[in-house]
Specification:
The complex is a heterodimer. By secondary structure, chain A is mostly beta strands. Chain A contains no helices and 11 strands. In chain B, strands 2, 4, 5, 6, 9, 10 and 11 form a 7-stranded mixed beta sheet that branches. Chain B has a 4-stranded antiparallel beta sheet with strand order 1-3-8-7, with no helix packed on it. Classes of the chains: A mainly beta, B mainly beta.
Chain lengths: 113, 115
């Protein structure tokens, strides 16, 4: 069984500030981890994913995430927020034992000018 | 490269009516997914196809939902009869193959409102 917990349904930051969106997972086997972004009235778009290898993963739009096995975490960060980053962000976990990723409930990122 | 296409984008129906959604995946993608996304929640998988065969439909409410992927390309998802709790965005996604590491590409979704 696998599950994802995203801490905080809403995160508010000022433009130029650090973005930190938290994701913790539970998986009985080595996980594959994903972050997706969803802009209003659009489908989900992959930001980045971890499968194996380097634990620090760089994605699109300046985002990155670090897989920390000891903490069962895969937090998403960006050094400097832009207004265009305002969207819903979803963490998901998959595994070699399941073709189907399990999504978290999402975190809404709000960026203030 | 064209993305995943879905239609209609919006649909409003009354309870007990039927409705159908259409999805055209990215060309060459063997795997197709239908998700239900209720407001404030993450997507929940309803059904997964590999070519024209069903891989997983364990979370599809089969008494009212049905889906098919004839010829292994386009797919339709049907609800008959609809209930109020079916109000959600229905997302279609496709991936190159069945590997759990494959990136899924999502369509814009169909927003269903059941009155």
């Amino acid at each position: 069984a696998q599950s994802v917990t995203q801490l905080g349904s809403h995160v508010s930051v000022s433009e130029g500030a650090l973005v930190l969106l938290r994701c913790n997972y539970s998986s009985s086997v080595p996980p594959y981890l994903f972050w997706y972004v969803q802009y209003p009235n659009q489908g989900l778009q992959l930001l980045l994913k971890y499968t194996t290898g380097a634990t620090l993963v760089k994605g699109i739009n300046g985002f990155e995430a670090e897989f920390k096995k000891s903490e069962t975490s895969f937090h998403l960060t960006k050094p400097s927020a832009h207004m265009s980053d305002a969207a819903e962000y979803f963490c998901a976990v998959g595994s070699g034992g399941s073709y189907i990723p399990t999504f978290g409930r999402g975190t809404s990122l709000i960026v203030h000018p | 490269e064209a993305g995943v296409a879905q239609s209609p984008r919006y649909k409003i129906i009354e309870k007990r009516q039927s409705v159908a959604f259409w999805c055209n995946p990215i060309s060459g993608h063997a795997t197709l997914y239908w998700y239900q996304q209720i407001l404030g929640q993450g997507p929940k998988l309803l059904i997964q196809f590999q070519n024209n065969g069903v891989v997983d439909d364990s979370q599809l409410p089969k008494d009212r939902f049905s889906a098919e992927r004839l010829k292994g390309v386009d797919s339709t998802l049907k609800i008959q009869p609809a209930k109020l709790e079916d109000s959600a965005v229905y997302l279609c996604a496709s991936s190159l193959d069945l590997q759990s590491t494959d990136t899924q590409y999502f369509g814009p979704g169909t927003r269903l409102t059941v009155l």
